[in-house]
Amino acid sequence: MKRRLFLATSLASLGLAGCGQIKNSLTYGPFRGALLSTQKLNYAVIGTHGLAREYTDADVDRNFRVNGFDTPSDDLYTRLTNGGFRDYRLVVDGLVERPQRLSLAELRAAGNQTQITRHDCVEGWSAIGKWQGVPLATIVAMAKPKANARYVLFHCFDRDQSGQPYYESLDLHQAAHPQTVLALDLNDKPLDPDHGAPVRLKIPTQLGYKSAKWVSRVELVADLGGTFGGTGGYWEDQGYEWYAGI
Amino acid sequence: MVGERVYRHTVTARTTHWVWALAILVLVMSGLQIFNAAPYLDASDKSNPQRRVLAFGAQMQGGQPVGTTTIFGHTIRTTHLFGYTDDGMGGEAERAFPAWLTLPGPQSLADGRLWHLFFAWALFIAYVAYVFDAALRGTLREWILRPSDLPKLLPMQLYYLRLRPEPPPHGTYNPLQKAAYTIVLLAFFPLLIITGLALSPGVDAAVPWLTWVLGGRQFARTWHFTLMAFLVGYFATHLVLVLSTGVWNNMRSMITGWYALKKYDGVGP
């Protein structure tokens, strides 16, 4: 019975795919709910198991492809860049016992992990970079999350053409993965502005849009519904999956 | 009075046939949508233009936009078909595959992915249900290719080409049908699912040997696309055969299960 219903709805949606209005109601209505349910299935099956493949220096793309939004050019970011990011502080707050304001020196002192991993873009291309930074788990632990904290939100300096800020999120499982790092260096040099200076997220077990550039603030929250579009990220608000492991 | 009929397809076979017919249509069209976001294929792990086997593009030539397809370094003009194609809004634009071939709608990587991953599950579930059902009922034995079928492949092909008066003796399915069903069902379907999974960073971390065995992530993408192209070729052949060997009888057997062995001509044998 369920299969027939599924078949009928699928056929109907296919037949109507050309008609804008009806297509939208299917794309954003119950049909979309069904489509999004596979995201939960994918996360349940694949989850955060294993480690992304690590490569050697010989595999690294020296001119790592620049993608995403334009490099921020607002007053605050320009001032930080001109000052060599000496005034930059990574804010860690939200549902935490001990909020943090960490300078780049403090971030470097907190831990140092090097990974040469492949960056897989949702568009389909891949590039290999050498990332150095501090594991996200270390920073989250420093702030002592409260018992009701479930997600880590990343607020960023960059904005789209209409002024919407970029943001991303991970749950605590994904945040605790040993290869999830706040990167400070790319290919043995401090991150340059185009690659997300001074701090960006690098999570090689998920698609590139999760690896937010230009991170200014890490906020622990109980749910994602209250921030911007409510789906946990800029691209998620545009319809992309929140779980980007597939 | 009607001609002799046989019950050819079980309810599971018929249902799963139509589920994956729909699923494959959506998967191909949403797959082309996803492909359009990076319209090239490399035989490598990371993207590498030196190892590019297929690329689509558009450029200006004499003031006119021209669509191009580059296969193993050889470029041909494919304006309107590939590279510079229908944008779904009454015009043309730089896009590998035309809007009428992509789902859902002209350009949406996010929705294309959602449709693709949903129908991938539909295909997978229907596939597993069919193979288990066929194995348990024994119908799998009717179409699986055996070593003893191999010498009959050429005579059967000759019969199809009308170079032989009689087909070689066979059971429910002839040796070429068995070869096609065995390759598609036991090689293409699993390989399409496996090469698709190998594209996912989460799967690559959980099962690292999978992407490696296929030659890396971009190579897995190339395999996935190539298998799709073969499957589309199989589907075209399948359609020609369905249409040319009694379309109503074939359709009836795939909807009701009953297949007429011969038509009653009113005169008797």
Describe it for me?
The complex is a heterodimer of chains A (246) and B (269). Chain A has 246 residues and is of the alpha+beta class. Chain A has two domains: 2-45; 51-237, Oxidoreductase, molybdopterin-binding domain (Sulfite Oxidase, Chain A, domain 2), CATH 3.90.420. Chain A has helices spanning 2-15, 20-28, 30-46, 75-82, 104-110, 136-142, 172-176, 234-237; strands at residues 90-94, 100-102, 113-120, 126-135, 151-159, 165-171, 181-186, 189-190, 200-202, 215-221. A five-stranded mixed β-sheet of chain A has the order 2-1-10-5-6. In chain A, strands 3, 4, 7, 8 and 9 form a five-stranded antiparallel β-sheet that branches. Chain B is α+β, with helices and mostly antiparallel strands and 269 residues long. Chain B folds into two domains: 5-36 and 102-260, Up-down Bundle (Fumarate Reductase Cytochrome B subunit); 40-101, no CATH class. Helices cover 51% and strands 14% of the residues of chain B. Chain B has a four-stranded antiparallel β-sheet with strand order 2-3-4-5. Chain B starts with a strand and ends in a 9-residue tail after the last strand. At the A-B interface, helix 1, helix 3 and strand 4 of A face helix 1, helix 2, helix 6, helix 7 and helix 8 of B.
Structure characteristics:
heterodimer, A: about 250 residues, alpha+beta, Sulfite Oxidase, Chain A, domain 2, five-stranded mixed sheet, five-stranded antiparallel sheet, 10 strands, about 30% helix, disordered N terminus, B: about 270 residues, Fumarate Reductase Cytochrome B subunit, 2 domains, four-stranded antiparallel sheet, two-stranded antiparallel ribbon, 9 helices, globular, disordered C terminus
